[in-house]
Each structure stands twice: as structure tokens, then as C-alpha cells.
């Protein structure tokens, strides 16, 4: 069992305990300080917290060891999800609306979290990333039944393998049972203005 340091977080927005809490999960090699900047462009009726991934990598941090881009090592993903859940249980009050917003590697991690413990979260945004297939998390029919999901992808994304992006879209839209908001465009591996507008509206609907 790997021993990780306690979670480092950055916060932004409302301090009211009953407003929705949006947890921002950065991409591989990034950190919490970079992704918390996204909160400035999101509904101010919510509270935001960005969590630093526990594995150091490339001058930044990662959510899991991988066996190729978008393909987590199952044992590593389990350890980091358990670490995150320990932080979550100590940070989040019961009955609060909690949304996960993950970008790239953070999207795969967010997907793993909600597939593993859907009862913890009110919804998830999978931004320019893949779900963690063949990584010890059950990706099964109706596995996210009635869960609000925003999925954003760019047709010119050359970072995440296209097969994984397509497989993620197929599962979420056709098999998961989720309530899906689709934000697909011609962009690359980055949040476009159109996707940001869709994310703003999606979060606001919880407020």
C-alpha cells in the first residue's frame, strides 16, 4: 500500500455550507492551482475546491500510474481513489450536492470515482478525457442510472486516443443510463468557449 501525503487543496467561491460543491480535478502533470483558475469563469452561486493529485509527475502531479495514455494501472487507481475518498469523507458534509469536474487525466479519475461510489456525487463532467476502462472499476450497463453527466470532447483531440474517446461517448450516451449533456466540437485537447458555456449552464442548473 502506497502512503500518500494529506490532500493539498485550493478553494474559490461561496463559503455557504449548503450551496453545491464543485470538485475540480486537474490533468496529468498539472496541479490544483492551475485548475482552480477555471472557477473564476463558473457560476458564483457554487463553491469550488481543487484537489492536488497525490503522485508527483513531470513537474506536476498525476492521479494514477498508467500503462498508456488514458489507461490507468488498476492497483494505482484503487489506491488513489481510496486516498481521495478518505479526504472526501472528512471534507464534505452529508446531503450536500457534490459535482465532479475532471479534465483529461482528471476526467478518468472523476469517472472512476463516480462509477465506484455513485452515491457520493450528484453529477460528473468528463472533459476531454476517457473513462477508466479495464482498470478495476465496473463500467456496466446502467452503472450511472439517472446521474447527470456532461461529456465534452474535441474532434481534433490528438492527446487522448480516439478509440477511448469514442468508447467513453458510447458508454455514457448509450449504456450508462445517465442524463447526458453533450458538448462536442471541433476543438483539440482543451476547453473551448463553447464547452465552457455548456459547463457553466450545467453547473448553474444545480444551484
How many β-strand stretches?
9
Main beta sheet strand tally, sense and closure: 7 strands, mixed
Query: Which stretches are poorly predicted, pLDDT < 50 over at least 5 residues?
Result: none
What characteristic shape results from the CA principal axes?
globular
The CATH architecture designation is 3-Layer(aba) Sandwich
Q: Which key features would you list for this structure?
A:
5 helices, single chain, seven-stranded mixed beta sheet, Rossmann fold
Q: Secondary-structure map with pairings?
A:
Blueprint: E1 9-13, E2 21-25, H1 32-35, E3 47-51, E4 55-57, E5 60-62, H2 74-91, E6 98-103, H3 105-116, E7 123-127, E8 148-154, H4 162-175, E9 179-185, H5 193-204
Parallel strand pairs: 2-3, 2-6, 6-7, 7-8, 8-9
Antiparallel strand pairs: 1-3, 4-5
Structure description:
It is a single chain. The protein has about 210 residues and is of the alpha/beta class. It has one domain: 3-Layer(aba) Sandwich (Rossmann fold), CATH 3.40.50. It is built from five helices and nine strands. Strand 6, helix 3 and strand 7 form a beta-alpha-beta unit. The termini are far apart. About 45% of the residues are buried.
Amino acid at each position: 500500500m502506497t502512503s500518500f501525503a494529506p490532500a493539498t487543496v485550493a478553494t474559490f467561491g461561496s463559503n455557504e455550507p449548503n450551496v453545491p460543491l464543485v470538485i475540480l480535478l486537474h490533468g496529468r502533470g498539472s496541479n490544483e492551482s492551475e485548475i482552480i483558475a477555471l472557477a473564476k469563469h463558473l457560476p458564483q452561486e457554487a463553491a469550488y475546491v481543487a484537489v492536488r493529485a497525490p503522485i508527483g509527475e513531470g513537474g506536476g502531479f498525476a492521479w494514477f500510474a498508467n500503462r498508456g495514455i488514458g489507461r490507468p494501472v488498476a492497483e494505482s487507481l484503487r489506491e488513489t481513489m481510496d486516498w481521495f475518498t478518505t479526504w472526501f469523507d472528512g471534507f464534505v458534509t452529508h446531503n450536500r450536492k457534490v459535482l465532479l469536474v475532471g479534465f483529461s487525466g482528471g476526467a478518468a479519475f472523476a469517472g472512476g470515482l463516480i462509477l465506484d461510489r455513485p452515491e457520493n456525487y450528484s453529477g460528473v463532467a468528463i472533459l476531454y478525457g476517457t473513462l477508466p476502462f479495464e482498470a478495476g472499476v465496473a463500467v456496466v450497463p446502467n452503472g450511472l442510472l439517472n446521474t447527470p453527466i456532461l461529456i465534452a470532447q474535441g474532434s481534433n483531440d490528438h492527446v487522448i486516443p480516439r478509440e477511448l474517446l469514442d468508447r467513453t461517448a458510447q458508454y455514457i450516451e448509450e449504456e450508462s443510463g445517465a442524463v447526458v449533456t453533450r458538448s462536442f466540437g471541433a476543438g483539440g485537447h482543451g476547453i473551448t468557449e463553447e464547452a465552457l458555456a455548456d459547463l457553466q449552464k450545467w453547473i448553474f442548473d444545480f444551484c
